[in-house]
Amino acid sequence: TDLTAMMAAQGRAAALEQYRRRAPVYDLELALFEPVRRHAIERLALRRGQTVLDVGCGTGLSLPLLRRLVGTSGRVVGIEQSPDMIEHAHERVAQNKWKNVTLTCSPVETAVIDVTADAALFHFTHDILRRADAVSNVLRHLAPGARVVASGLKWAPRWAWPVNLLVWPAALHSVTSLEGLHEPWSGLARLTGTLEVETMLLGAVYVAQGRLAP
Predict the structure, then answer these.
(1) Is 45 strand, coil or helix?
(2) Cα 41 to Cα 63: distance, rounded to the nearest angstrom
(3) If you ran DSSP here, which 8-state letter would residue 81 be given?
(4) pLDDT-derived band of residue 3, with 50, 70 and 90 as boundaries?
(5) Pick from 15, 90, 119, 179: most CB atoms within 10 A?
(6) What confidence score (pLDDT) does residue 74 get?
């Protein structure tokens, strides 16, 4: 509908502005969560020669780890809608002379994906995970049995309210809507089936993993 399209456009504009401001310091902001990134990428169980999608790749912080796992015979495809963020990712690729890393600057829901991938990573991409059209576009380009891993912030249990006092400002700083923060992976689970969900940092962070039906 026109209202849905208008809300989507407003959300995208808000996200672009948010990440324009964050781009220069984004790597520092996420330094605390590097163990989460590494754990999420481990759950992809990537092998040499495989192709992986880095959905919402930001400044490309996950690219070195992903590329190391798939090797020079594999391929990494990063998708990011923020020109300010992906500029840093392009610099990272150029500095390392990676020939098998491709970057696409586009909203995920309309991104042209020219591969059939073996795995997809959604790392700290709450807004993307809450968009069924974005998630569907990614899943359409995954091979049967492909691994999917999502990670990010979530509300901790109610009894851990001091933790949520930290989650709240962090989420406001990094997402355009707090909708679905109790189970950010729920939309992905509806499309892929049951996900195995782990929590970290006293319940403030999750890592959800699953596989597409063969």
Answers:
(1) coil
(2) 10
(3) S
(4) very low
(5) 119
(6) 98
How many residues are listed for the chain in this entry? 214
Q: Model confidence at 159, in pLDDT bands (50, 70, 90)?
A: confident
What distance in Å separates the CA atoms of residue 210 and residue 43, rounded to the nearest whole number?
A: 9
**Residue written as token pair 């959604």:** 122
CA 33 to the chain's CA centroid: 13
Q: Are 58 and 23 in contact (CB under 8 A)?
A: no
Amino acid identity for residue 157 in this structure: P
Amino acid, single-letter form, for residue 61: L
* Range 78-89 average pLDDT: 95
Whether the CA torsion 178, 183, 186, 192 is positive or negative: it is positive
Task: Report the mean per-residue pLDDT for the chain.
Answer: 91
**How would DSSP label each residue in 10-44?**
HHHHHHHHHHHHHGGGHHHHTGGGHHHHHHHHHHT
For residue 206, what are the β-bridge partners? 152, 199
- Are the C-beta atoms of residues 188 and 148 closer than 8 Å to each other? yes
Residues 6+ apart with CB under 8 A from 38: 65
Locate 123 and state its tokens: 């790392």
C-alpha angle 83-84-89 in degrees, rounded to nearest 5: 85
Please count the other Cβ atoms lying within 10 Å of the Cβ belonging to residue 87.
Answer: 16
Residue 1: predicted pLDDT: 57
Single-letter residue type at 125: T
